[in-house]
Design goal:
alpha+beta, Immunoglobulin-like, four-stranded antiparallel sheet, 7 helices, 26% helix, C2_dom, cell membrane, transmembrane, calmodulin binding, calcium-dependent phospholipid binding
Length: 400
């Protein structure tokens, strides 16, 4: 009050206004500072959220990276983006369209490579006669009073699968060599790799002096309704080395048949698998050293290609016939539609035939291509799967 009442001192109203202005300015400064701090903080959070959405380190970024990962051996297909759609979204669209097929092909390839019976050691010994063909049990004896040779075919064990269904339909032919005209046969045991026959066969009116000059020859075959029966293995035993005074029982390992695959020639063919088109292209290129089937010492070869699914014949195609040629060049390609999910149950049968006008065409040799065939065939099948869209060529020995 003394200050205010002194001469020249400011009035009360002036001081009040000054205080109000001072407080207002202080509040304004504080608020401005707070706003600037808030803007910086909020802006940083917003910026971080944008970066998180767009970077591979975020959850979405990792899922996108996994989704667009291509299988081994595959390649990305670049397409123009749809108007109004970002390239990133276009990649997502392509990924959804192809991911299921790619995953299926990849898993199927791995499964085939793991399940296929052809190991590296098998491939190294391809064509060797060390293959296990199973064994057969039989008995033989001679009745001197009735001049009769008795042969009993009992059973076989561990026979190889000759059919594409993974089994065989075995039966046995019995010869007394060198006589090939007169033979006896057992019944066919359907889908059985360990068949029991227990069948007895009699060769009556056979003097003992002639019996001991013969060779008992047993041939085990796989019955085929549609084509020539496939030999499985054989056993031969000279009867002069057997005590025929009583029935003798033998277990013998089957050996490759004397008309083995090497004498039938070879065929060069290529396989090309296209997973996106669900197709396999078989190119029959050429053959060499084919077996002569005609009297003139030559053959008239052509090639049949059968597509099999499980135990059904789906489609057949064939080449032209090459007249009087044991080393023909075909260079003919055939395309077969095979969905990826059916590859495991698919077999391609290649049959080289000899054309005959006057009688039934003769089979020169066969090749079974699948994931469960012989070592050489399995290797070709695996190479085809491992190298999609590329023709894979390989020579194959023709088998009976």
């Amino acid at each position: 009050d003394l200050y205010l009442s002194s001469p020249g001192a400011p009035s009360r109203d002036v001081l009040l206004v000054s205080a109000i202005i001072t407080v207002s300015l202080s509040v304004t400064v504080v608020l401005c500072g707070l706003c600037h701090w808030c803007q910086r903080k909020l802006g940083k959070r917003y910026k971080n959220s944008l970066e998180t959405v767009g970077t591979p380190d975020s959850g979405r970024g990792r899922s996108e990276k996994k989704a667009i990962k291509l299988p081994a051996g595959g390649k990305a297909v670049n397409t123009a983006p749809v108007p109004g759609q970002t390239p990133h979204d276009e990649s997502d669209r392509r990924t959804e369209a192809h991911s299921s097929v790619s995953d299926l092909v990849n898993s199927l390839t791995s499964e085939m490579l793991m399940l296929s019976p052809g190991s590296e050691e098998d491939e190294a010994h391809e064509g060797c006669s060390r293959e296990n063909l199973g064994r057969i049990q039989f008995s033989v004896g001679y009745n001197f009073q009735e001049s009769t040779l008795t042969v009993k075919i009992m059973k076989a064990q561990e026979l190889p699968a000759k059919d594409f269904s993974g089994t065989s339909d075995p039966f046995v032919k019995i010869y007394l060599l060198p006589d090939k005209k007169h033979k006896l046969e057992t019944k066919v045991k359907r889908k059985n790799l360990n068949p029991h026959w227990n069948e007895t066969f009699l060769f009556e009116g056979f003097p003992y002096e002639k019996v001991v000059q013969r060779i008992l020859y047993l041939q085990v075959l796989d019955y085929d309704r549609f084509s020539r029966n496939d030999p499985i293995g054989e056993v031969s035993i000279p009867l002069n080395k057997v005590d025929l005074t009583q029935m003798q029982t033998f277990w013998k390992d089957l050996k490759p048949c004397s008309d083995g695959s090497g004498s039938r020639g070879e065929l060069l063919l290529s396989l090309c698998y296209n997973p996106s088109a669900n197709s396999i292209i078989v190119n029959i290129i050429k053959a060499r050293n084919l077996k002569a089937m005609d009297i003139g010492g030559t053959s008239d070869p052509y090639v049949k290609v059968w597509l099999m699914y499980k135990d059904k014949r789906v489609e057949k195609k064939k080449t032209v016939t090459m007249k009087r040629n044991l080393n023909p060049i075909f260079n003919e390609s055939f395309a077969f539609d095979i969905p990826t999910e059916k590859l495991r149950e698919t077999t391609i049968i290649i049959t080289v035939m000899d054309k005959d006008k006057l009688s039934r065409n003769d089979v020169i040799g066969k090749i079974y291509l699948s994931w469960k065939s012989g070592p050489g065939e399995v290797k070709h099948w695996k190479d085809m799967i491992a190298r999609p869209r590329q023709p894979v060529a390989q020579w194959h020995q023709l088998k009976a």
